[in-house]
Amino acid sequence: MVPPPATTSADTVHYAGDSSVRELIRSVAVPSGTGQLWRKLLAFSGPGCLVAVGYMDPGNWATDIAGGSQFGYAILPVIVLSNFVAIFLQYLALKLGIASGCDLAQACRRHYRKPATIVLWAAAEIAIVACDLAEVIGTAVALQLLFRIPLLIGTGLTIVDTLFVMTLMNFGMRRMEAFITSLFALIAGCFVIELLMAKPDMTAMTMSFAESGRIAVNPDMLYIALGIFGATVMPHNLYLHSSLVQSRRFALTQESRREAVFFGTVDSTTALMLALFVNAAILILAAAAFHGNGLTNVIDITQAHRLLTPLLGTVAGGILFAVALLASGQNSTITGTLAGQIVMEGMLELKISRTLRRFLTRALAIVPVFAVVAVAGDGAITRLLIFSQVVLSLQLTFAIVPLVMFTSDRKIMGAFVNSVPVRGAGFFLAALVVAANVWLVLQTLMG
Question: Could you please report the per-residue DSSP string of 79-143?
Answer without folding.
Answer: HHHHHHHHHHHHHHHHHHHHHHSS-HHHHHHHHS-HHHHHHHHHHHHHHHHHHHHHHHHHHHHHH
